Amino acid sequence: MLAALYCAGTFGGSITAILINAPGAPPAAATAFDGYPMAQRGEAGRALGMAAVASVIGGMLSLIVMVLAAPALARISHSFGPPEYFALAVFGLSMLASISGKSPVKNLIGGAFGLLIATVGVDLTTGVERFTFGVPELYEGISFIPILIGLFAIAELLSQANVRDKVLERISLNAIKLPSATDFKRVWPTILRSSGIGTFIGILPAEGSTMAAMIGYNEARRWSKNGDKFGTGEIEGIAGPEAANNAATGGSMVPTLALGIPGSATAAVILGGLQIHGIRPGAYLFENQPDLLYSIFAAMFLANVVFLVFGLVGARLFSRISLIPRTFLWPTVFALCVVGAYGVNQSMVDVMIMLIAGFAGFWLKRYGFGAAPIIMGVVLGSLVENSLAQSMIIFDHDAWRFLDRPIAIGFFLLAAFSLFYQPVFGWLRRFRRPRSAASKGAK
Amino acid sequence: MIVVALYWITTTFSTVPALFAQGMQATAMPRLILGVMAVLTLVMLYQGYGHVEEDKPVISWRMWVTAGLLLAAFLLFEILGLTLTMALTCLLIPLLWGERHLGRIMILRRLHTGNDLSAFHLCAAASAAAGILSPWLS
Questions:
Q1: Are B41 and A109 in contact (CB under 8 A)?
Q2: Of A56, A179, A238, A278, which one has the fewest beta carbons inside 10 Å?
Q3: What is the percent of chain A with per-residue pLDDT over 70, rounded to a whole number?
Q4: A341, A5, A137, A377: which is closest to B30 by C-alpha?
Q5: Does B111 score more than 70 pLDDT?
Q6: Lowest mean pLDDT among A165-179, A293-307, B73-87
Q7: Across the interface, do A112 and B36 touch by the CB < 8 Å criterion?
Q8: Which pLDDT value is given to residue A411?
Q9: Looking at beta carbons, which residues of chain B come within 8 Å of A384?
């Protein structure tokens, strides 16, 4: 269900992005750049039709990649021991430096904070209590669900309390049209390119649909003959981001299912859901629970088909959700949050954790820290600690012996690259600029 | 400051003999993470040095009162129970946020009273959450 929601939710965000210029989800932000101007021109139906078709093609292509690549990656993971998993988790966390957000360092601090949250509870090796403050409910650690709900929903509720009502104008929508042969002929290279980009970005740990959509949009503009008209209602400006963000859904499930490393923040939530049910992704999952995997694949496939139908037929109705006054929407969200947080362990401590996470999330967001890195840290926390502890036992407490493991070295190098490529390239650019300016001055 | 405070908390953790700890005490991982956080914080401070901080939106009184309301709701769950607390919250948040259509608010409150109760019993099977209404709801 979570996997199907992931696919359908990624497309769903584009409906409001096109009709009321309010993306229903961050990955749909790029769709609004050209979708809303098209809707203002009276071409909302054409824009929605293209969004639906591009999303389905992107989603389906990435599903094919997922079905082929995930089992292969899982087979490779047979040769992984604790050192390789530790290095892989470090690589996954290092990718937080390049996910969307203003500051890579803040993303990394958020990830580290998430890891710290995961250490709460009784240490399994030593039996020592850590950060439990004498609260018995914390002995088994902090449940993932209340933190998730708090950081995303309660923090947003508090943000909503701080803003004035925005007046959203819904553009009238008569009929949704499937892309014409002319439109399709024009956009199919964009769809294929964006599907490839989206799938690749999805496979990278931590990179999600939002970044895929932005890159998909930029590449569509770069390759288009009408690149200068982007932002004024170009059909390629819808096809590019929509194919990319839906392709990223299948891509991000590859490392999630094959290695247990989330491919995006939403995949981290799905991974958390699997962990709650005692399911450990990786080679074991592929060998022993193929039924579960096939049901995930089937759910994502069906979601892609169903949202095409629902998207085309029900867009007019679904777009009305964004017009519900926030004064009614958010109390409802709060009620659902309480039920969700309490329902996991039937504990009021979880409700308290949800509220604390919500207040913390509000302040962190205000200071530029995103919720997604923290969630990634929480999800990867146990893997990082356990694999490090096991590695140190294997290596007889000599950390240098990580260098004896080629796969681990590869992941560490990738981690170093993802951490330092931006500062190094930035420094090189600054270094070159004065030299070229000086040489021009000399001429 | 937070990192220092958390580091101090790790000094209060118990220690076990090295044999039981298998060479990695319970403090090792939290301290490693706090060390990383400290280094990253220094990098962040270095990057921010000389930069003018962006103006942040002013926090309105509504946010503070909403936060207080959520906290009060948490404290009242045990006493009033879920149904009454949610009904009160769904009455007060819209009013606080400027909603003046009392008829709509009452509809929302009534919907919540029924829905929250059924959702709770369905998802959480928690009759304890009924609070002072428990004699009537059991």
A1: yes
A2: A278
A3: 89
A4: A377
A5: no
A6: A165-179
A7: yes
A8: 85
A9: 29
Q: How far is CA A118 from the centre of its chain?
A: 20
Are the CB atoms for A54 and A238 separated by under 8 Å?
Answer: yes
**Mean pLDDT of the region B86-113:** 74
Contact check, Cβ <8 Å, B30/A351: no
The percent of residues in chain A predicted with pLDDT above 90, rounded, is 3
pLDDT averaged over chain A?
79
So what's the ipTM on this one? 0.81
Which residues 289-348 on chain A approach chain B with CB closer than 8 angstroms?
325-328, 330-332, 334-336, 338-340, 342-343, 346, 348
A393 with B9: Cβ contact below 8 A? no
For residue A340, the chain B residues in CB contact (below 8 A) are: 123
**Interface membership of B51 toward A (CB under 8 Å):** no
Put simply, the answer to whether B112 touches A125 (Cβ < 8 Å) is no
**H or E element at residue B76:** helix B61-96
Of the candidates A358, A348, A364, which has an alpha carbon nearest to the alpha carbon of residue B66?
Answer: A358
pLDDT value, residue B34: 92
Q: Between residues B58 and A324, which one has the greater pLDDT?
A: B58
Determine the Cα–Cα distance for residues A75 and A96; give it in Å rounded to an integer.
26
Q: Is the pLDDT of residue B63 over 70?
A: yes
**Surface-to-core class of residue A176, CB atoms within 10 Å of its CB (0-12 exposed, 13-18 middle, 19+ buried):** buried
- Closest chain A residue to B95, measured at CA: A327
| Burial of B17 from C-beta contacts in 10 A (0-12 / 13-18 / 19+) | exposed
Within its chain, how far is the Cα of B22 from the centroid? 36
Q: Average pLDDT for residues B57-78, to the nearest whole number? A: 86
Name every residue whose Cβ is closer than 8 Å to that of residue A170 and which is 6 or more positions away in sequence. Answer: A19, A20, A319, A320, A322, A323
Asked if B120 is an interface residue toward chain A (Cβ–Cβ < 8 A), one would say yes
Encode chain A in three state secondary structure.
CHHHHHHHHHHHHHHHHHHHCCCCCHHHHHHHHHHHHHHHCCCHHHHHHHHHHHHHHHHHHHHHHHHHHHHHHHHHHHHCCHHHHHHHHHHHHHHHHHCCCCCHHHHHHHHHHHHHHHCCEECCCCCCEECCCCCHHHCCCCCHHHHHHHHHHHHHHHHHHCCCCCCCCCCCCCCCCCCCHHHHHHHHHHHHHHHHHHHHHHHCCCCCHHHHHHHHHHHHHHHCCCHHHCCCCCCHHHHHHHHHHHHHHHHHHHHHHHHCCCCCHHHHHHHHHHHHCCCCCCHHHHHHCHHHHHHHHHHHHHHHHHHHHHHHHHHHHHHHHHHCCHHHHHHHHHHHHHHHHHHHHCCHHHHHHHHHHHHHHHHHHHCCCCHHHHHHHHHHHHHHHHHHHHHHHHCCCCHHHHHHCHHHHHHHHHHHHHHHHHHHHHHHHHHHHHHHHHHHHHC
